[in-house]
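Why this split exists: single-chain examples teach little about how molecules sit against one another. For that reason, every record in the complexes split bundles all components of an assembly together and asks for one structure covering all of them. Below is a record exactly as it appears in the raw files.
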Amino acid sequence: MSLTRREALQLGIGATAIGGLAGCRPAVRYVVGDGLPESFAAPKTPNSPAMRLLNRAGFGPRPGDLDAVEQLGIEGWIAQQLIAEEDEPIDLSLAMSQLDVYRIDSKELEDLPMANVIGQLQRAQLLQAVYSRNQLRERMVDFWSNHFNIYAKKPDAAFRLGRDEWNVVRVNALGSFPDMLRASSKSPAMLGYLDNQLNRKGAANENYARELLELHALGVEGGYSQKDVQEVARCFSGWMIENRFLKPAGKLRFEPDQHDDGAKVVLGQTIAAGGGEKDVAAVLEILVEHPSTARFLAKKLTMYFLGERSSSIERSISETYMESKGSIPAMLRPILLSQEFLNGKPIVKRPFDFVVSALRATDADVTGKYNLNDSLRKMGQPSHEWPMPDGYPIDTDAWTGSLLARWNYAIALTSGGLGDAKPRLDAVREKFKGSDADFLTTIFFGASSSEGALAEVTPLIEEALKAKGENRLAEAASLCLSAPQFQWR
Amino acid sequence: MSDQQACESYRDAMSRRPALDRRSFLLAGSMGLVGWLATPKTALAQMALRPEGERDSDALVVIFLRGGMDGLNAVAPYAEEEYYRLRPTLALGRPNDRTKAQSDRVIDLDGFFGLHSALQPLAPLFEKGELAIVHAVGSGDQTRSHFEAMSAMERGLSGGTAGSVGGWLARYLQATAREGDTPMRAVSLTSTTPDSLLGATHAINLYNVSEYRLEGEQRFRMQLAEMYGSGEDAISIAGRDTISVLKKLDRLDPMGYNPTGGANYPDSELGQGLKQTAMLLKNGVGLEVACLDRGGWDTHVTQGAGTGWLASQLDDVGRSMAAFAMDMGAGMKRVTVIAMTEFGRRAYENTGLGTDHGRGSCLFAMGGGVVGGKVHAKWPGLKENQLEGPGDLAVTTDYRDVLGEALLKRCRIREIGNVFNGYAPSSHGVFRA
C-alpha cells in the first residue's frame, strides 16, 4: 500500500481521511524516492559548517542533507527553515493523524489510560523531530515546550497537553512571542498545572502569576517584586477550568464573582478597577512590551543555541524583539547568522537530541511502540516528564550521567534490539560513493574518516569493519553512536 | 587472562596503529566536530583503587526536599499561640490534645517543638541523640522562586546565582581531592545530576545501581575505553568515570542486597535510593558524597494536617531515613545525613487550605556525629512583627552554617576556603568534632 504525497494531494484526500489506510503501514518513513538521495559522498572540506548548522538548528542530518545545505547555501537553508512551509513526508502526516491527543478534547481523552495519552504525546514529539522537513521549527518546539513546560503526570495535565502543544507551542513556534504568551495564558493545561483554578478573589493563589513573571516573560532578574506577583495573581483571579454538569468540561471559564475587580498596580502601571476578564490582556500587554522580557528571551535563546552568553548577540536579539514586537524568526536571525553559531564551542546533545539524531543519521523506520521513550527515560529526558515549570536543564554537567544509557541505546538500536526502530544502514550504504569507513563517518559525524577530530575513532571503526559477518556495519555504527564526538552538536 | 590484562593488551594492540596526528586534531578543535582538546594522559591510571579501611571522615548523604517543605508543620512550634491563629485548619494539635486523633497531634520534642506524627519513625533516633533538627534555617534568597532558591543553595550562595559558579559539593570534592581518588567519590541517585555537583568531575549519576550495566560484548567496553581515553572535555571525562564505575559495580550484586538490622525501606524513590547508598557505603567503593532528591513539597492546596499530602511526603522521608540508619547500624558512626529544602512556606494557611512560598524552614541532620535530641533554633517567633515579608518565618540560621559545620567537623576538609564562595560559616553546635 503505497501512495506518494503527490498522488494523495491530487486525489484531494486530507490526512484524516487517509488515516484509515495507515493500519497497513508498520512504520513511519520517507516515501521511496523522496527520502534518500540518488547518491552522496563524504564532505570534501573538514569541519563542515553544514554539519554544525544541521546539528544546531535541527536535529542532525539525514543521509544527503549535508549536500542539500551545500546547494542552498547556509543563508538559503536558514531562510527556508524560518518560513517553515516545507511539505511534510506523508507517512509522518498519516502517523500524526492517527494520534488522539491532537484531535480529541481533553474530556473525551480521559477515557484513555493516562500512560497511553502520555505515550502518544511523546511519540508525536519524537516522530516530528525525526521526520519533519521543518527542522528548525521542531528545534523551536523543543525550546518552547521546555520554556512553557507542563508536567504531564500532574492530575489532568496529560489530557490537556496535546491541545496546549498544538495551540500554544506548535502554531507559534516560529511566529510571534506575544501571541504564544497570550495563548499560554489561556491554556487550560498551563493554568491547571499552575493551580490557577484555585486563584479566587480574596483567596489568591500565586503559583501561575509567579511563573508567568519568572519563567515565561520577565525572567527572575526582570525587576518585579513579591507585590507584583500578588497583583498579577489578582488579575488572573476567577479564571477557572470548567467542571460543571453538561458544560464543556476542561475549557477555560471566567467567573466574574470570583474575580478581584479592584484596581491593580503591576510593574508600576495601574490597571483600573472594573476590568473584569480584560485584566489578563492588560497584564500581558505590560509583559510583552517590557524590555526585561526581551532581555530574558535573548539570554535564553543565546544559551540554548550557543551554550554560552554573548552580550553582543543578546543585545541584538533584544533590540530585534522590541522593534519587531516579538517576532521569533527575527530574533533567531542574529544567532543563526552569527560566526559564534557556526564556530563557537560545541554544546552537548541532550538525550532527546541524541536519540533523534541517531534515528535521522541511520534513516531509521520507527513504528508505534513506546520503547524509544523508555530509552529516553533511562537517559533522564522523557518528553513532558520534567516535573518543574522551568523545563529540562541545558548545561552539559546535567547530562554527563547519561552516557551509559546512551551506549546501551547505541548497541540496542544497531543490533535490532529496539523492536520499534530499525536503522536502514544497508539501504543507505548503497547510495554512498566511497569506503565503508567514510560512509559511517559521513552519516554520523559529517566528515571523512581521515578528519583529524576522528583520529581516535576511525581506527576502531576500521577494526570493526574488518570483522566477518553481516553485522560488521552495525557494530561499527554502534561505535560511532557511542563515541564522544557524537555526543556534541 | 583477567579483564585487566585483556584491557591492557587491547590497549597495546591499539597503540601500534598509525600514530595520531595530534596537530591536525588540535587544529580541528576550534570548529564543528571537536571542541575538546586532547592532552596525552592515561585516564585508566585514575582507576587505581584506594584500599578501603576504616573511614577517616564521614560520608555525606544530602537529601534535597524539592518544592519547599513546610517546616512549620514538619516540626511544629506547638507552644506558640500564634501558630494556631495563623493556621486554623492546618495546625497540628498539641501533644496532649485529647480532642484530636493521634495522627493530628505532634510528638513532643522539647516542650516547644513537636514532630509531625508522620515522622514518628525518626522519634527514636531523636531520643537516642542521633538526629538533630535545625529550625528557622534557610538562605538569603528573597525571590521565593523554587529555582532561584534551589540554585542558590546548591551553589552555596546566599541568594541569586551571580557568576556562573559550580556546586558546593563539587568544590568540597575538589578541595579534598587526593591522589588515587576513585571516580565514585560522589554519586547522585537522581534522574539528572543535581546543581550541587555541578563542575564535579568525579561524580556519577546512577539513578538505579542494578540497572547500571553495559550491554554488548566485553570488547565494547574496551573500545569505549579507547574512544574516551584521552579527551579533556566534560563528556570524555564522564565517559572514563562511567567505565571505571562499571568495573567497580561488576563485583557488587545490587539485586541480591539484603539490608541488615531489620531495615525495611519504603518502595519509594528516596527509600530505594537510600538503600542503594547503604549498599555502596558498605561495599567500600570509596563513596564520600551521595545526593538524593525527594520532590513534591509544593503544597499550595489542600496539604492536609495530620494526614494527607504533606503527611504522606513526611511519612516517606521518616521511614526512608529510619531504615537507612537501621541498615547502616554501627556504620552510622561515620555517616552524616542532611535533609534540606530550598525554603519553607508562608506562616498562615491560604484559602485553598495550602501554604504559599515562604522563607525559613527546618533541616534534619542524622548520624553518629550530630548533637542530636535537640532542636537547634534561634526562634524568631510567629507574631506579625516577627514574620518576614508577606508573612513568612524569618531565617535566623544561614543554611551554610550547618553545611559548613558538617564539612569542617565531620568530613575531609580542614578549611572551608571557597566552598561557599568566600562565606565563612559559624558553628552552632549541631555537630561534634
